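Please predict the structure of the following assembly.
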Amino acid sequence: MKQFQGRIITPGEVTAEAVVTTQGFNTLASFQMALQFGDKEVKCGDQNNEELHGKPLIGKALCLPQTIGSTTGGLVLYCACAMEKNPACMLFSNHVDSLAAAGAVLADVWVDNVSMPVIDSLGDEFLNYVKDGMKITVKANGIVEVDG
Amino acid sequence: MILTQEQQAILDGSKGETMAKVMKTIVMYGEAFEAEKLVPITSKYNHLVTSFGLKVMSPVYDLMQQLLDAGVASGQNFSVDPRPLDKNVPANILQNLVFNKFMYTKQDFYEKQLKELGLMNDKAFTCTCYMDEVGNKPQKGDVLSWAESSAVVYANSVLGARCNRNSGIIDIMGSIVGYVPYFGLLTDEGRKATWIVKINTTKKPEAQLLGSAIGMKVMEDVPYVVGLDKWIGAELNDSACAYLKDFGAATASNGAVGLYHIENLTPEAVELGEKLIAEGAKEYIIDDAELERVQKNYPVIWKNPDATPKLCFVGCPHLSLQQLKDWTDKIEAELKKNGKKKVIIPTVFTAAPEVLKAFAKTDYEARLKATGVITSYICPLMYMNNPLCKKMPVITSSNKLRTYTSARYYTDSEILKIITDGGK
């Protein structure tokens, strides 16, 4: 098991299985079809992301460098949370980007009874180490435990 | 973050619980970027990204209703992204059923909300709100609370305004409180280039291909592009602005670029030159082979990669008046060369309602119509945002549309050949 200290964007504690992308996560492209057409697993729809395309996102610990793409990204994340179709947590190796931060904050302030901890600045080593299927535990102090 | 007395009072509830939550959202958003303060929005108008009344986005409309019910609407009027539907655009019975009975059932409801929230007028639906015909064109140095990635990157880069890549909902919340957090592209430091991109091509690079290559390389960083003025000139005329509109949209959608500088052309690059380049900036050289590599690597996700295209979209982001005229001339000439009168693939050109109105005042409109091309004000992305379109071979010269849908990308000249002669 390895521990990584990150910075808390929105707080919370959770344990979930990792899904990992080492390229930018395009929020709109990833969620749009699944949210619109009721895909219960919320499979990633981004054809340009070979690591994630077709993989379920709901309830997973989404490990990523940053999000990219359309500025609907934040509201898409907000909707995913409001519909309870969100990842369990989002863990950024880099500094969080403006769209992901917006989605995390909107969900935290405006959605009741849904928690999606968002931790950033976990470092390149985190993203190099973590692999799909590993068990992730997010602690309230921003520590992320990765259990291979 | 240090707040003024007024801002702190709002956060503490002096203007009601909902306004306090709006302020909390903006403050938390800023704190994620270590913003030390909020600064006033100075643009005349705002621009929102959310224009579509999708049934599935009910949480957004519920939130908007909370704002309306609490009477906390923005003091700024705003434009908004394009409408998703237009009867002029070809669609079969099943598609129409899905659009009207399943997907966009909230459109009328949401448009009513937008009017109450401060929509500029009922034609202010476009991603290119900065066109002269539309009238939402910020001044250099204006601080904005805009969303819509292609509009933000244009406002920052070509107009010299200051705006972060805000998300939908954050756009209107900043406008409601009248302040945005001071970080990133609002600061002089955040506007410095951390990449130098050298254009070493033997011909004018395709705007949307070049933007895609740069976006995928630099991601959210700021590129300083050297050598492009050789191809598009050193004057921000109609042609250069249209090029930069398309280029920027591709940098923003294929990556996350919110600002670029073009040496000798964009306002800050003209004013400050290489002083805009941060110490230790990385370098990316683009030649013909690199652009070819990028284009070849786009995935083709059509069921049958050799299928004959059933629809072509041009105009994502929306076309300018001059682009509509230029396309008319090119299509007429190509059809004449090929001994044809009309395009052989159903083709839709999209532009802002006010740009289409201006186009209708010219003789070009009738000429374009005679070629069989349809004009529309819709968002092609919204049109294609359903599983039925995934099975449909659609072509486009928009790298943004390619990124978010199953549309296949071709350069403008390839599109011209395909729609006039099947690409032979």
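Chain A has one domain: 2-23+58-147. Chain A has four helices and ten strands.
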